[in-house]
Write a structure and sequence with these properties.
Keywords: Nucleotidyltransferase, RNA-directed DNA polymerase, Transferase. GO terms for molecular function: RNA-directed DNA polymerase activity. This is Putative RNA-directed DNA polymerase from transposon X-element. The longest helix has 20 residues, at about 40-55. About 0% of the residues are buried. By secondary structure, this protein is of the alpha+beta class. The chain is flat. About 40% of the residues lie in helices and about 15% in strands. The chain has a domain at about 5-55. The chain is built from five helices and four strands.
Length: about 140
């Protein structure tokens, strides 16, 4: 029936290969490789192809999508964040960073129409103070 996968497609065989120069007494001395069922790998290829087609049909991935993309890594994401913060700082603007993502910012009322922009520093600080119920350091305050 639809949506069902064979049990053999849901499991992998684990093969452990010793890392060069290691004794083999600890789990970290081995490199794990999961061997998947051939049918599962073929099916995975079909799904990946269809997903790529659909993503392209819908306009492709955002240039800010770093995960699960060839040639992109967390280092690229970090570099983009640092460049953005540096640019905003050079322009004497204000920028808020959130590890919770856009939906968390919206939940807490932190995300406005322009989260990195030319908004008045005082307005943003008072907004953050009232929404988070946390004190925010102001210019001239000691650390």
């Amino acid at each position: 029936s639809k949506g069902d996968f064979l049990d053999t497609m849901k499991t992998a065989k684990l093969a452990l290969f010793p890392k060069p120069g290691r004794e083999g007494g600890e789990a970290s001395d081995f490199r794990p490789i999961c061997l998947l069922n051939t049918l599962a790998k073929l099916y995975e290829g079909v799904i990946v192809h269809k997903l790529k087609e659909e993503i392209d049909r819908c306009g492709g991935l955002s240039e800010r999508q770093f995960g699960f993309r060839k040639g992109m890594s967390t280092l690229d994401a970090l570099e983009t964040v640092l460049e953005t913060v540096a640019r905003v700082n050079r322009n004497n603007n204000w920028c808020a960073l959130s590890s919770g993502g856009r939906s968390k910012c919206l939940q807490h009322g932190l995300l406005e129409s322009n989260s990195c922009g030319t908004a008045n520093h005082g307005d943003k600080r008072s907004s953050a103070e009232s929404n988070l119920k946390l004190p925010v350091q102001k210019e001239g305050d000691s650390v």
